[in-house]
Amino acid sequence: MKIGIVGATGYGGSDLLRLLHQHPKVSDITLYSSSQEGVHIHESYPHLTNIYEQVLQPIDIDKISQQVETVFLATPPGVSAEITEPLANKGLKVIDLSGDLRITDRGVYQNWYKRKAANQSIIDEAVYGLSEWNREKIAKASIIANPGCYPTATLLALAPLVKKRLIDLDTVIIDAKSGTSGAGRSPSEMTHYSEMNENFKAYQINQHKHTPEIEQELRQWDDDLPYVTFQPHLVPMVRGIMTTIYAKAKETMTEEFLRNLYKDTYANDHFVRLRPNGMYPSTKEVFGSNYCDIGITIDERTQRITIVSVIDNVVKGASGQAIQNLNIMNGWSEQEGLAFTPVYP
Ligand SMILES: NC(=O)C1=CN([C@@H]2O[C@H](COP(=O)(O)OP(=O)(O)OC[C@H]3O[C@@H](n4cnc5c(N)ncnc54)[C@H](OP(=O)(O)O)[C@@H]3O)[C@@H](O)[C@H]2O)C=CC1
Ligand SMILES: CC(=O)N[C@@H](CCC(=O)OP(=O)(O)O)C(=O)O
């Protein structure tokens, strides 16, 4: 299949290149850039030397439509809102890694992203690409809104409980920590070495744009949901997200019941792995991979449930889940191009 990547010079784009290199169904990749036309990709990323020889092409919708069949948009907010529609009108399939097409209510998007939303028709056409929970819709979709990194870790962790309406939703607290690659490649004051080395910060308290995305998806499963508390932190590492989620059980439940619920729910989902009783995952255990690892317990004294989930933010939180969705859209095995072990240590 002929694939295009817009934004290949960013972290999400370069990780797509890493994974697609060993994807058996992808033979031909064209790279597009808004700022580095004519430059070889390995000049921007020397680690790709002798692996990718492509020269970055300008973002010209007509040319893209002649060159590729499916295009990944690994671009900052605002870009997909502009270019998804013209690309789709040319018959291309689009997998968007940004947040532009995830929020179905334009007013909510504009409120949290502080920018103009995409046209409603293109938002309505996009399918939210949480692979494990939306397979049937993804299989028929032409446009995918790939989930945000924090929402991926959060929704996979909460889904079994929320779908069965087993927790009081106004007690949910999502305490999330991310490595700095989540902020992209462009230098920023928040993430540069002196700011982050030997440091740990909470940021965007009560203002993070992933809050409405998490609420929107949880509401599809339990319409009792008012709001959740979601709090991200930056930690001094490059890749990885850990969410520690606390929620109160509606009715008395045992540890055994809880474990069986998660085991049964994800029994056929290769990329979601449940830790045995008393064990909790750490970010290194999924580093560089498409896995989401989950540990769960209940304090039978307080009936408070604690769920710990980890992902690699760039892979399951972006490029890997985007490829999982490409596989589903094409009827290929979900593991194509993604079947490798995490990098450890
Ligand atoms: N990093 C992560 O962990 C995750 C990222 N995401 C989302 O994926 C998207 C990409 O993220 P990431 O790769 O980290 O970001 P980066 O900042 O690393 O890269 C974004 C790329 O977009 C391109 N770009 C910038 N402005 C424009 C423009 N006006 N038109 C077209 N292309 C443009 C740039 O390439 P060039 O100058 O060559 O055009 C740049 O390299 C973002 O929306 C992000 O929020 C989602 C989940 C996780
Ligand atoms: C550490 C860090 O800065 N992380 C980013 C999350 C990146 C992301 O997933 O953003 P999109 O929803 O646009 O895809 C943030 O907090 O904004």
UniProtKB/TrEMBL annotation:
Gene Ontology CC: one annotated term: cytoplasm
Coarse class of the protein's main subcellular location: cytoplasm
Database matches in Pfam families: Semialdhyde_dh, Semialdhyde_dhC_1
Pathway: Amino-acid biosynthesis; L-arginine biosynthesis; N(2)-acetyl-L-ornithine from L-glutamate: step 3/4
Keyword list, A-Z: Amino-acid biosynthesis, Arginine biosynthesis, Cytoplasm, NADP, Oxidoreductase
Localisation per UniProt entry: Cytoplasm
InterPro entries documented for this protein: AGPR, AGPR_AS, AGPR_dimerisation_dom, AGPR_type-1, NAD(P)-bd_dom_sf, Semialdehyde_DH_NAD-bd
EC number: 1.2.1.38
Reaction equations catalysed: N-acetyl-L-glutamate 5-semialdehyde + phosphate + NADP(+) = N-acetyl-L-glutamyl 5-phosphate + NADPH + H(+)
Entry-linked CDD domains: AGPR_1_C, AGPR_1_N
Keyword NADP in annotation: yes
GO process terms (BP): L-arginine biosynthetic process
Ranges of residues in domain Semialdehyde dehydrogenase NAD-binding: 2-141
Listed SUPFAM superfamilies: Glyceraldehyde-3-phosphate dehydrogenase-like, C-terminal domain, NAD(P)-binding Rossmann-fold domains
Active site: C149
GO terms for MF: N-acetyl-gamma-glutamyl-phosphate reductase activity; NAD binding; NADP+ binding
Record-stated family: Belongs to the NAGSA dehydrogenase family. Type 1 subfamily.
Function: Catalyzes the NADPH-dependent reduction of N-acetyl-5-glutamyl phosphate to yield N-acetyl-L-glutamate 5-semialdehyde.
NCBIfam families assigned: argC
Protein name according to UniProt: N-acetyl-gamma-glutamyl-phosphate reductase
Organism: Alkalihalobacillus trypoxylicola
Underlying gene: argC
